[in-house]
């Protein structure tokens, strides 16, 4: 049987993963749950590959920086990055789309193209001021 | 001096260029670098400073030095129009040199930038001074820029956000290679001025006096064991 | 466990060595150490080689580097393996060398760390170092080690009132020490006025990853360093009479979460604390007994944070010590007497070994004038891998 849903054009998301036994959320996902030692099999064949939970929504800026010396492939003068905490307690790093950030400020989350490589757009968090 | 009629035919028409007001920059080591315009009469010291670098194959020094040498002679012998030369000096010793020229009153054509003293961002400071001269002192609208070193050039492209004028090629080309050029406009310059251009004016008279007589460097970090021949 | 002594040390100049071959550079440091130990002709005493390197396969297109080095300096048939732990590779290689001797498997080990990062452009070099981070959650964004240091510094400044001036003070101190170190990458001292107070400072010392400036980060360097270890109870110690042996008294290491955002407290460097606790316990020493230390200042903020995390100063209070001159060469607790990573340079694989090289040099009383610690008894090196997710601490003492 062919799963034709794999051809669907989905909205890009960044996923947290949920341990099927104890329900703990992880970002990024490990191979074994640190709370209950439940294992994960990315292929889903031997163990569950764990449920994906889309991340996003409101978050708080924990810290940020404006980086001038960027790696190969990022040929812009600077980029802003931040570490945020979501309402569910999960934290993440991401691009900061705010010109004058302040630690502690409330932000909202979009998922956008953070890097382009041949044949692929890579998506990630873009934190912006609440609309 | 009366100029021979034939000689006059070989000299380009010249714009009247405002002089560059000297300034002093305190480098990270605490050393004071005086940045001032060089005079035609100082050509001997300038050529002598650049000459040893013509033999350094690393980091594009050979081509940059060779071209600067030719451009300095072109300026000195009135075969290049509207060229200016700025030097950075520490205690009178030349630690870096930039040169450039004006195509017309609005357009500049950046030529070269070379730093002899390394590790103190002398090149970056002198490049910024060159742009300051074009845009602020000479009131030009834009300056065309390319470079021999791809890495050095990429840095300028990113840090100054240079405008890509490739689509105007070959009508608009940079003299240094006839390649498609990138351009620093007044607007782009003003956007980075605060972070890039620095220096104190006027220069204290005693300090400026140390830069009166330019001296060739005795040491070149690019040439280990160098000794200036008699 | 058997007692292990350092009986020979070697170092190359740190700087731009990109015109040379990586293994040649490592070989040069190795031979310096063999000569220092007095066994260049008798180098078949080396039974085991550990090599610390991170970028060989990525930047220099070379793998199997440990095997390569063995042949380059004629050490066959010595056993040889590569140890990779990011910027902490050097100390990890020493740790593994120590355990090889302490276990009784071998008596004499050579540890060489080296890196040739300047073989590629600055952008590729930055990208290479950033590969330490989590591929999906960090690397893909273009996050770099300086970016993490910038975010850490911002929080530290907000919580403890650290200022850019405090950071500049340490840069000045490091450069002053480095200017007297013939191996240092940057031997030019810098002045506080020029990099912080003067009106040209913001251009001469621009931001790299706000609020960190260029004089708050180490340069990109090439270079290698070597230490030779021998079991104190081995009959082979009789070959090492040229120099005073220095003891490895304690080694500790610990890991923390890979993703920086998952650290329990964003301002705590738990792996530093745990690794140093283990090292102190093994050495039977307390922080107060340490005479001097090399602390991994790839970013100047880390000299502050690590010095507090290991217990030299109370949290948030290291800046007072810096202002009082406590950490200068003539202070009570000289830090980064070699110039630190800031001035000496940071070839990733070499750094951990270079730090221990400095401990030995000072404990032997061989450091250059102007950067000599007075009467040192115990020295400590903290080698920081990733952005603090794998840290190795080494304590060395006079015999």
Word description of this protein:
- The complex is a heterotrimer of chains A (131), B (230) and C (399).
- Chain A has no helices and eight strands.
- Chain A is mainly β.
- Chain B has 230 residues and is of the alpha+beta class.
- Chain B has a single domain (18-210), classed as Aminopeptidase.
- In chain B, a hairpin with a 2-residue loop joins strand 3 (83-90) and strand 4.
- Chain C has a domain at 4-121 and 220-239: Thiolase/Chalcone synthase (Peroxisomal Thiolase, Chain A, domain 1).
- Chain C is 35% helix and 18% strand.
- Chain C is built from 13 helices and eleven strands.
- In chain C, helix 1 packs across helix 2 (65-72) and helix 3 (89-102) crosses helix 13.
**What is the total tally of β strands of chain B?**
8
Tell me the total number of β-strands of chain C: 11
Instruction: Tally the structural domains of chain B.
Output: 1
Give the full name of the CATH homologous superfamily of the domain at 4-121 and 220-239 in chain C: Thiolase/Chalcone synthase
Order of helices and strands of chain B: HEEHHEEEHEHEEHH
Query: What structural class is derived from the secondary structure elements of chain B?
Result: alpha+beta
- What characteristic shape of chain C results from the CA principal axes? globular
Largest interface: A-C, 30 and 36 residues
Which spans of chain B of ≥5 residues are poorly predicted at pLDDT below 50? Answer: none
Count the DSSP helices of chain B: 7
- In what range is the share of β-strand residues of chain C? 15-25%
The largest pleated sheet of chain B is described as:
8 strands, mixed
**Fraction of helical residues of chain B:** 25-40%
């Amino acid at each position: 049987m062919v799963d034709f849903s794999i051809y669907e054009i989905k909205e890009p998301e960044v996923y947290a993963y949920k341990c099927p036994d104890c329900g703990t959320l992880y970002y990024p996902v490990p191979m074994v749950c640190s709370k209950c030692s439940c294992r994960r099999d990315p292929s889903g064949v031997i163990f569950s590959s764990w449920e994906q939970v889309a991340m996003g929504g409101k978050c708080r800026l924990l810290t940020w920086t404006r980086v001038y010396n960027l790696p190969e492939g990022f040929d812009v003068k600077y980029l802003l990055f931040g570490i945020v905490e979501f309402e569910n307690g999960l934290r993440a790093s991401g691009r900061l789309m705010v010109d004058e950030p302040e630690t502690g400020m409330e932000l909202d989350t979009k998922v956008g193209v953070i890097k382009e490589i041949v044949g692929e757009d890579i998506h990630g968090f873009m934190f912006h001021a609440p609309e | 001096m009366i100029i021979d009629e034939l000689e006059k035919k070989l000299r380009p028409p010249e714009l009247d260029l405002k002089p560059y007001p000297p300034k002093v920059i305190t480098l990270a080591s605490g050393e004071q670098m005086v940045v001032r315009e060089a005079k035609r009469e100082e050509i001997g010291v300038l050529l002598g400073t650049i000459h040893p670098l013509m033999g350094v194959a690393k980091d594009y020094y050979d081509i940059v030095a060779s071209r600067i040498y030719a451009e300095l002679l072109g300026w000195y012998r009135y075969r290049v129009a509207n060229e200016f030369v700025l030097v950075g000096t520490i205690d009178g010793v030349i630690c870096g040199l930039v040169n450039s020229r004006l195509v017309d009153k609005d357009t500049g054509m950046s030529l070269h930038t070379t730093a002899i003293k390394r590790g103190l961002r002398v090149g970056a400071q002198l490049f910024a001074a060159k742009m300051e001269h074009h845009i602020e002192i000479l009131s030009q609208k834009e300056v065309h820029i390319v470079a021999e070193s791809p890495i050095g050039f990429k840095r300028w492209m990113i840090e100054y956000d240079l405008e890509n004028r490739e689509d105007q090629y070959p009508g608009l080309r940079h003299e240094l290679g006839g390649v498609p050029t990138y351009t620093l406009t007044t607007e782009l310059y003003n956007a980075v001025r605060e972070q890039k251009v620095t220096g104190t004016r006027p220069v204290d008279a005693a300090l400026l006096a140390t830069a009166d007589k330019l001296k060739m460097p005795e040491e070149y970090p690019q040439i280990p064991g160098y000794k200036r021949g008699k | 466990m058997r007692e292990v002594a350092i009986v020979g040390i070697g170092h190359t100049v740190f700087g731009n060595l990109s015109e040379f071959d990586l293994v040649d550079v490592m070989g040069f440091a190795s031979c310096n150490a063999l000569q220092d130990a007095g066994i260049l002709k008798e180098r078949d005493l080396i039974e085991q080689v550990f090599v610390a390197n991170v970028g060989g396969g990525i930047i220099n297109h070379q793998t199997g580097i440990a095997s390569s080095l063995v042949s380059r300096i004629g050490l066959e048939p010595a056993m040889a393996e590569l140890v990779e732990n990011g910027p902490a590779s050097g100390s990890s290689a020493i740790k593994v060398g120590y355990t090889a001797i302490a276990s009784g498997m071998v008596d004499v080990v050579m540890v060489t760390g080296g890196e040739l990062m300047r073989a590629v452009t600055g952008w590729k070099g930055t990208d290479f170092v950033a590969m330490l981070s989590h591929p999906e959650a960090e690397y893909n964004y273009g996050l770099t080690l300086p970016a993490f240091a910038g975010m850490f510094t911002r929080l530290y400044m907000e919580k403890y009132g650290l200022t850019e001036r405090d950071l500049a003070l340490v840069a000045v101190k490091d450069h002053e020490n480095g200017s007297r170190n013939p191996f240092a990458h940057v031997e030019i001292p810098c002045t506080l006025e020029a990099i912080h107070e003067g009106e040209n400072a913001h251009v001469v010392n621009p931001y790299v990853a706000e609020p960190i400036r260029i004089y708050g980060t180490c340069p990109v360097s090439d270079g290698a360093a070597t230490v030779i270890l021998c079991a104190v109870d081995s009959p082979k110690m009789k070959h090492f009479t040229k120099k005073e042996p220095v003891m490895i008294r304690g080694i500790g290491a610990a890991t923390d979460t890979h993703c920086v955002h998952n650290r329990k407290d964003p301002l705590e460097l738990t792996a530093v604390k745990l690794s140093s606790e283990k090292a102190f316990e093994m050495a039977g020493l307390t922080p107060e007994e340490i005479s001097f230390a090399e602390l991994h200042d790839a970013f100047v903020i880390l000299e502050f944070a690590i010095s507090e995390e290991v217990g030299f100063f109370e949290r948030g209070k290291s800046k007072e010590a810096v202002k009082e001159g406590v950490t200068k060469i003539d202070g009570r607790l000289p830090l980064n007497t070699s110039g630190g990573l800031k001035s000496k340079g940071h070839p990733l694989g070499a750094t951990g070994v270079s730090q221990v090289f400095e401990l030995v040099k000072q404990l032997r009383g061989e450091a250059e004038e102007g950067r000599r610690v007075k009467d040192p008894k115990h020295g400590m090196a903290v080698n920081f891998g990733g952005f603090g997710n794998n840290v190795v601490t080494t304590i060395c003492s006079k015999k």
